[in-house]
Amino acid sequence: MARVFRNILGAFSDGAILFPLIGVLSKGSGYSTFTLFLTAGLFYIVSGLYFRVPMPIQPLKAIAIAAIVSGASFLEVRIAGALLGVLCLLLLVSPVIPLADKIPKFIVHGIQLSLGLMLIRKGVEELIPFFFSLTKINSIIIIAISGLFFLFRREKQISVLGITAGIGAILGFLTTENTPVIHSTLHFVVNWKTILLLVLPQLLLTSANSVIATQDVAKKYFKDQARRVTLKSLLCSIGIGNLCSALIGGLPFCHGSGGMTAHARGGSDHWLSNLVIGFFLLGLAATQFLGKRVEFNYPPFLLGVMLILGGIYHTQLASPSWKTPQYRPILIMIAIVSTTTNNLIYGLSAGILIAFLISSLSHKGVLHDSI
Questions:
Q1: Segment 40-50, tens digit of pLDDT
Q2: Cα–Cα distances in Å, from 220 out to 55, 145, 262, 329?
Q3: Neighbours of 166 (CB within 10 A)
Protein backbone atom coordinates (compact mmCIF):
# COMPACT_ATOMS: atom_id res chain seq x y z
CA MET A 1 0.00 0.00 0.00
CA ALA A 2 2.86 2.35 0.83
CA ARG A 3 4.34 1.72 -2.62
CA VAL A 4 1.04 2.60 -4.30
CA PHE A 5 0.85 5.83 -2.28
CA ARG A 6 4.43 6.76 -3.28
CA ASN A 7 3.63 6.19 -6.94
CA ILE A 8 0.50 8.32 -6.70
CA LEU A 9 2.48 11.21 -5.20
CA GLY A 10 5.38 10.65 -7.61
CA ALA A 11 2.97 10.92 -10.53
CA PHE A 12 2.80 14.69 -9.97
CA SER A 13 6.54 15.21 -9.44
CA ASP A 14 7.15 16.70 -12.89
CA GLY A 15 4.07 18.91 -12.71
CA ALA A 16 6.16 21.95 -11.78
CA ILE A 17 7.21 22.08 -15.44
CA LEU A 18 4.17 20.53 -17.14
CA PHE A 19 1.33 22.64 -15.74
CA PRO A 20 2.95 26.10 -15.93
CA LEU A 21 4.10 25.58 -19.52
CA ILE A 22 0.64 24.39 -20.52
CA GLY A 23 -0.65 27.61 -18.99
CA VAL A 24 1.92 29.66 -20.88
CA LEU A 25 1.12 27.94 -24.19
CA SER A 26 -2.60 28.46 -23.67
CA LYS A 27 -2.16 32.10 -22.73
CA GLY A 28 0.60 33.06 -25.14
CA SER A 29 0.07 30.99 -28.28
CA GLY A 30 -3.69 30.55 -28.29
CA TYR A 31 -3.74 26.80 -27.69
CA SER A 32 -6.93 25.20 -26.44
CA THR A 33 -6.28 23.93 -22.94
CA PHE A 34 -8.73 21.11 -23.61
CA THR A 35 -6.54 19.65 -26.38
CA LEU A 36 -3.35 20.33 -24.40
CA PHE A 37 -4.56 18.35 -21.38
CA LEU A 38 -6.25 15.71 -23.54
CA THR A 39 -3.13 14.92 -25.54
CA ALA A 40 -0.81 15.15 -22.51
CA GLY A 41 -3.03 12.69 -20.64
CA LEU A 42 -3.20 10.25 -23.55
CA PHE A 43 0.57 10.41 -24.11
CA TYR A 44 1.21 9.76 -20.42
CA ILE A 45 -1.04 6.69 -20.44
CA VAL A 46 0.28 5.25 -23.72
CA SER A 47 3.91 5.87 -22.66
CA GLY A 48 3.37 4.08 -19.36
CA LEU A 49 1.67 1.12 -21.03
CA TYR A 50 4.45 0.77 -23.60
CA PHE A 51 7.67 1.65 -21.76
CA ARG A 52 6.57 0.03 -18.47
CA VAL A 53 8.46 2.62 -16.40
CA PRO A 54 7.48 6.09 -15.12
CA MET A 55 7.98 7.92 -18.43
CA PRO A 56 7.58 11.72 -18.35
CA ILE A 57 5.67 13.80 -20.86
CA GLN A 58 7.06 17.32 -21.06
CA PRO A 59 6.17 20.29 -23.25
CA LEU A 60 8.92 21.06 -25.76
CA LYS A 61 10.55 23.82 -23.71
CA ALA A 62 12.69 25.27 -26.50
CA ILE A 63 9.67 25.51 -28.79
CA ALA A 64 7.28 26.76 -26.07
CA ILE A 65 9.57 29.50 -24.70
CA ALA A 66 10.86 30.56 -28.12
CA ALA A 67 7.25 30.73 -29.37
CA ILE A 68 6.26 33.06 -26.54
CA VAL A 69 9.21 35.43 -26.87
CA SER A 70 9.14 35.48 -30.69
CA GLY A 71 5.36 35.83 -30.99
CA ALA A 72 5.03 32.71 -33.12
CA SER A 73 1.51 31.95 -34.27
CA PHE A 74 -0.56 28.96 -33.26
CA LEU A 75 -0.13 27.49 -36.75
CA GLU A 76 3.65 28.01 -36.75
CA VAL A 77 4.03 26.20 -33.41
CA ARG A 78 1.95 23.29 -34.73
CA ILE A 79 4.09 23.06 -37.87
CA ALA A 80 7.25 23.21 -35.74
CA GLY A 81 5.98 20.29 -33.63
CA ALA A 82 5.12 18.27 -36.73
CA LEU A 83 8.51 19.02 -38.30
CA LEU A 84 10.30 17.90 -35.15
CA GLY A 85 8.28 14.68 -35.31
CA VAL A 86 9.35 14.08 -38.91
CA LEU A 87 13.01 14.74 -38.07
CA CYS A 88 12.87 12.29 -35.15
CA LEU A 89 11.46 9.59 -37.45
CA LEU A 90 14.20 10.31 -39.99
CA LEU A 91 16.78 9.78 -37.23
CA LEU A 92 15.47 6.22 -36.94
CA VAL A 93 17.21 5.34 -40.20
CA SER A 94 20.42 7.18 -39.29
CA PRO A 95 23.35 6.17 -37.06
CA VAL A 96 21.80 7.72 -33.95
CA ILE A 97 24.58 7.03 -31.44
CA PRO A 98 27.54 8.22 -33.59
CA LEU A 99 25.50 11.27 -34.59
CA ALA A 100 24.68 12.12 -30.98
CA ASP A 101 28.30 11.67 -29.92
CA LYS A 102 29.29 14.48 -32.31
CA ILE A 103 27.10 17.01 -30.48
CA PRO A 104 29.36 18.93 -28.08
CA LYS A 105 27.88 18.65 -24.60
CA PHE A 106 28.81 22.24 -23.74
CA ILE A 107 26.65 23.48 -26.63
CA VAL A 108 23.67 21.51 -25.30
CA HIS A 109 24.38 22.84 -21.80
CA GLY A 110 24.54 26.38 -23.18
CA ILE A 111 21.04 26.02 -24.63
CA GLN A 112 19.77 24.57 -21.35
CA LEU A 113 21.30 27.51 -19.45
CA SER A 114 19.63 29.96 -21.86
CA LEU A 115 16.26 28.24 -21.54
CA GLY A 116 16.57 28.32 -17.76
CA LEU A 117 17.23 32.05 -17.78
CA MET A 118 14.30 32.62 -20.13
CA LEU A 119 12.03 30.65 -17.79
CA ILE A 120 13.23 32.73 -14.84
CA ARG A 121 12.62 35.96 -16.74
CA LYS A 122 9.13 34.82 -17.73
CA GLY A 123 8.41 33.92 -14.12
CA VAL A 124 9.51 37.34 -12.89
CA GLU A 125 7.29 38.99 -15.52
CA GLU A 126 4.33 36.99 -14.18
CA LEU A 127 5.07 37.88 -10.56
CA ILE A 128 5.55 41.65 -10.92
CA PRO A 129 1.85 42.46 -11.60
CA PHE A 130 0.82 39.99 -8.88
CA PHE A 131 2.69 41.83 -6.11
CA PHE A 132 1.07 45.10 -7.13
CA SER A 133 -2.40 43.58 -6.69
CA LEU A 134 -2.08 41.46 -3.54
CA THR A 135 -5.39 40.49 -1.96
CA LYS A 136 -6.23 38.68 1.26
CA ILE A 137 -6.83 35.43 -0.66
CA ASN A 138 -3.50 35.71 -2.47
CA SER A 139 -1.74 36.28 0.85
CA ILE A 140 -3.37 33.17 2.32
CA ILE A 141 -2.24 31.12 -0.70
CA ILE A 142 1.35 32.33 -0.27
CA ILE A 143 1.34 31.44 3.44
CA ALA A 144 -0.18 28.00 2.75
CA ILE A 145 2.38 27.14 0.08
CA SER A 146 5.24 28.38 2.26
CA GLY A 147 3.95 26.17 5.06
CA LEU A 148 3.90 23.11 2.78
CA PHE A 149 7.49 23.70 1.72
CA PHE A 150 8.55 24.15 5.36
CA LEU A 151 6.82 20.95 6.51
CA PHE A 152 8.07 18.74 3.69
CA ARG A 153 11.38 20.39 2.83
CA ARG A 154 13.37 17.33 3.99
CA GLU A 155 10.98 14.67 2.72
CA LYS A 156 12.60 13.39 -0.49
CA GLN A 157 9.72 11.04 -1.33
CA ILE A 158 7.16 13.86 -1.49
CA SER A 159 7.35 16.26 -4.41
CA VAL A 160 5.81 19.41 -2.95
CA LEU A 161 6.48 21.29 -6.18
CA GLY A 162 4.67 18.71 -8.29
CA ILE A 163 1.68 18.43 -5.97
CA THR A 164 1.45 22.21 -5.64
CA ALA A 165 1.53 22.53 -9.44
CA GLY A 166 -1.33 20.04 -9.71
CA ILE A 167 -3.36 21.97 -7.13
CA GLY A 168 -2.61 25.13 -9.12
CA ALA A 169 -4.08 23.49 -12.23
CA ILE A 170 -7.32 22.76 -10.36
CA LEU A 171 -7.44 26.32 -8.99
CA GLY A 172 -6.83 27.58 -12.52
CA PHE A 173 -9.93 25.80 -13.77
CA LEU A 174 -12.03 27.13 -10.91
CA THR A 175 -11.10 30.70 -11.84
CA THR A 176 -11.25 30.30 -15.62
CA GLU A 177 -13.89 32.24 -17.48
CA ASN A 178 -16.14 30.59 -20.06
CA THR A 179 -14.51 32.54 -22.85
CA PRO A 180 -13.29 30.78 -26.01
CA VAL A 181 -9.84 31.54 -27.35
CA ILE A 182 -9.85 33.41 -30.65
CA HIS A 183 -6.93 32.29 -32.75
CA SER A 184 -6.12 35.74 -34.11
CA THR A 185 -2.72 34.46 -35.16
CA LEU A 186 -4.13 31.50 -37.08
CA HIS A 187 -3.57 32.36 -40.72
CA PHE A 188 -2.01 30.77 -43.75
CA VAL A 189 1.02 33.04 -43.93
CA VAL A 190 3.82 31.04 -42.35
CA ASN A 191 7.27 32.43 -41.57
CA TRP A 192 9.67 29.53 -42.08
CA LYS A 193 12.47 31.45 -40.42
CA THR A 194 10.36 31.49 -37.26
CA ILE A 195 9.70 27.76 -37.57
CA LEU A 196 13.42 27.01 -37.90
CA LEU A 197 14.00 29.23 -34.86
CA LEU A 198 11.66 26.92 -32.95
CA VAL A 199 12.80 23.57 -34.34
CA LEU A 200 16.61 23.61 -34.59
CA PRO A 201 17.45 24.27 -30.90
CA GLN A 202 14.72 21.83 -29.88
CA LEU A 203 16.10 19.10 -32.15
CA LEU A 204 19.49 19.50 -30.49
CA LEU A 205 17.97 19.23 -27.00
CA THR A 206 15.64 16.39 -27.95
CA SER A 207 18.37 14.21 -29.42
CA ALA A 208 20.70 14.78 -26.47
CA ASN A 209 18.35 15.04 -23.47
CA SER A 210 15.09 13.38 -24.50
CA VAL A 211 16.70 10.40 -26.20
CA ILE A 212 20.32 9.67 -25.21
CA ALA A 213 20.11 10.94 -21.62
CA THR A 214 16.62 9.53 -21.03
CA GLN A 215 17.77 6.04 -21.97
CA ASP A 216 20.77 6.33 -19.63
CA VAL A 217 18.68 7.60 -16.71
CA ALA A 218 16.02 4.92 -17.25
CA LYS A 219 18.64 2.17 -17.07
CA LYS A 220 20.11 3.78 -13.95
CA TYR A 221 16.83 4.00 -12.02
CA PHE A 222 14.85 1.03 -13.33
CA LYS A 223 17.53 -1.35 -14.67
CA ASP A 224 16.01 -4.38 -16.47
CA GLN A 225 12.51 -2.94 -16.06
CA ALA A 226 13.56 -0.28 -18.60
CA ARG A 227 14.44 -2.73 -21.38
CA ARG A 228 11.87 -1.10 -23.70
CA VAL A 229 13.47 2.32 -23.26
CA THR A 230 15.78 2.34 -26.27
CA LEU A 231 17.02 5.11 -28.54
CA LYS A 232 14.77 3.96 -31.37
CA SER A 233 11.66 3.52 -29.22
CA LEU A 234 12.09 7.02 -27.77
CA LEU A 235 12.56 8.56 -31.22
CA CYS A 236 9.54 6.66 -32.50
CA SER A 237 7.41 7.79 -29.56
CA ILE A 238 8.38 11.47 -29.91
CA GLY A 239 8.12 11.37 -33.71
CA ILE A 240 4.73 9.71 -34.09
CA GLY A 241 3.33 11.46 -31.02
CA ASN A 242 4.17 14.96 -32.24
CA LEU A 243 2.80 14.28 -35.72
CA CYS A 244 -0.52 13.12 -34.23
CA SER A 245 -0.57 15.99 -31.75
CA ALA A 246 0.09 18.60 -34.42
CA LEU A 247 -2.90 17.39 -36.43
CA ILE A 248 -5.34 18.32 -33.65
CA GLY A 249 -3.47 21.24 -32.11
CA GLY A 250 -2.33 19.25 -29.07
CA LEU A 251 0.74 19.41 -26.86
CA PRO A 252 4.13 19.45 -28.62
CA PHE A 253 6.02 17.10 -26.29
CA CYS A 254 9.11 15.07 -25.59
CA HIS A 255 10.38 12.77 -22.87
CA GLY A 256 13.26 13.92 -20.72
CA SER A 257 15.93 12.73 -18.31
CA GLY A 258 15.09 15.55 -15.89
CA GLY A 259 11.42 14.58 -15.86
CA MET A 260 12.25 10.92 -15.28
CA THR A 261 14.55 11.91 -12.42
CA ALA A 262 11.76 14.03 -10.93
CA HIS A 263 9.33 11.10 -11.02
CA ALA A 264 11.87 8.67 -9.56
CA ARG A 265 12.94 11.00 -6.74
CA GLY A 266 9.32 11.79 -6.06
CA GLY A 267 8.68 8.13 -5.25
CA SER A 268 7.67 6.59 -8.60
CA ASP A 269 9.06 3.14 -9.33
CA HIS A 270 6.18 1.75 -11.41
CA TRP A 271 4.32 2.86 -14.54
CA LEU A 272 1.21 3.16 -12.36
CA SER A 273 2.36 6.78 -11.96
CA ASN A 274 1.76 7.34 -15.67
CA LEU A 275 -1.82 6.11 -15.34
CA VAL A 276 -2.45 8.33 -12.31
CA ILE A 277 -1.21 11.57 -13.90
CA GLY A 278 -2.65 10.55 -17.29
CA PHE A 279 -6.20 10.08 -16.01
CA PHE A 280 -5.87 13.21 -13.86
CA LEU A 281 -5.04 15.20 -17.02
CA LEU A 282 -7.94 13.57 -18.89
CA GLY A 283 -10.19 14.56 -15.99
CA LEU A 284 -9.03 18.18 -16.33
CA ALA A 285 -9.68 17.98 -20.06
CA ALA A 286 -13.20 16.62 -19.45
CA THR A 287 -13.89 19.39 -16.96
CA GLN A 288 -12.74 21.91 -19.52
CA PHE A 289 -14.86 20.35 -22.26
CA LEU A 290 -18.04 20.06 -20.21
CA GLY A 291 -17.67 23.59 -18.92
CA LYS A 292 -16.93 24.87 -22.42
CA ARG A 293 -13.81 26.54 -21.07
CA VAL A 294 -10.92 27.10 -23.43
CA GLU A 295 -8.78 29.68 -21.71
CA PHE A 296 -6.75 28.49 -18.74
CA ASN A 297 -6.13 30.98 -15.95
CA TYR A 298 -3.26 29.32 -14.06
CA PRO A 299 -2.83 31.22 -10.75
CA PRO A 300 -0.35 34.04 -11.57
CA PHE A 301 1.63 33.67 -8.35
CA LEU A 302 2.05 29.91 -8.77
CA LEU A 303 2.83 30.32 -12.45
CA GLY A 304 5.60 32.81 -11.69
CA VAL A 305 7.06 30.74 -8.85
CA MET A 306 6.97 27.47 -10.82
CA LEU A 307 8.58 29.06 -13.87
CA ILE A 308 11.35 30.57 -11.74
CA LEU A 309 12.02 27.31 -9.89
CA GLY A 310 11.88 25.38 -13.16
CA GLY A 311 14.31 27.88 -14.66
CA ILE A 312 16.72 27.49 -11.75
CA TYR A 313 16.59 23.72 -12.15
CA HIS A 314 17.21 24.06 -15.88
CA THR A 315 20.26 26.28 -15.39
CA GLN A 316 21.70 23.64 -13.07
CA LEU A 317 21.68 21.17 -15.97
CA ALA A 318 24.60 23.18 -17.37
CA SER A 319 26.75 22.56 -14.27
CA PRO A 320 28.88 19.74 -15.79
CA SER A 321 30.24 22.10 -18.47
CA TRP A 322 30.35 25.08 -16.08
CA LYS A 323 32.80 23.15 -13.88
CA THR A 324 35.25 23.15 -16.77
CA PRO A 325 36.82 26.66 -16.93
CA GLN A 326 37.38 26.76 -20.70
CA TYR A 327 33.67 26.14 -21.37
CA ARG A 328 32.41 28.98 -19.18
CA PRO A 329 32.97 31.77 -21.75
CA ILE A 330 31.04 29.70 -24.29
CA LEU A 331 28.13 29.11 -21.91
CA ILE A 332 28.04 32.80 -20.97
CA MET A 333 28.15 33.88 -24.61
CA ILE A 334 25.33 31.52 -25.61
CA ALA A 335 23.21 32.71 -22.68
CA ILE A 336 23.82 36.43 -23.27
CA VAL A 337 23.11 36.28 -27.00
CA SER A 338 20.08 33.99 -26.62
CA THR A 339 18.39 36.00 -23.87
CA THR A 340 19.10 39.47 -25.29
CA THR A 341 17.97 38.58 -28.81
CA ASN A 342 15.26 36.09 -27.74
CA ASN A 343 16.76 33.82 -30.37
CA LEU A 344 18.31 30.47 -29.45
CA ILE A 345 19.77 30.02 -32.94
CA TYR A 346 21.80 33.21 -32.52
CA GLY A 347 23.00 31.86 -29.19
CA LEU A 348 23.93 28.54 -30.79
CA SER A 349 25.85 30.32 -33.55
CA ALA A 350 27.70 32.51 -31.06
CA GLY A 351 28.63 29.48 -28.97
CA ILE A 352 29.94 27.55 -31.97
CA LEU A 353 31.91 30.61 -33.14
CA ILE A 354 33.62 31.25 -29.81
CA ALA A 355 34.33 27.52 -29.39
CA PHE A 356 36.00 27.53 -32.81
CA LEU A 357 38.05 30.63 -31.96
CA ILE A 358 39.22 29.19 -28.63
CA SER A 359 40.14 25.91 -30.31
CA SER A 360 42.05 27.70 -33.10
CA LEU A 361 43.96 29.95 -30.70
CA SER A 362 44.82 26.99 -28.49
CA HIS A 363 46.26 25.03 -31.40
CA LYS A 364 48.33 28.06 -32.43
CA GLY A 365 49.73 28.40 -28.96
CA VAL A 366 48.15 31.79 -28.35
CA LEU A 367 46.25 30.45 -25.34
CA HIS A 368 47.90 28.51 -22.56
CA ASP A 369 46.88 24.99 -21.62
CA SER A 370 45.11 26.30 -18.54
CA ILE A 371 42.47 27.83 -20.83
A1: 999 999 999 99
A2: 14, 33, 14, 32
A3: 22
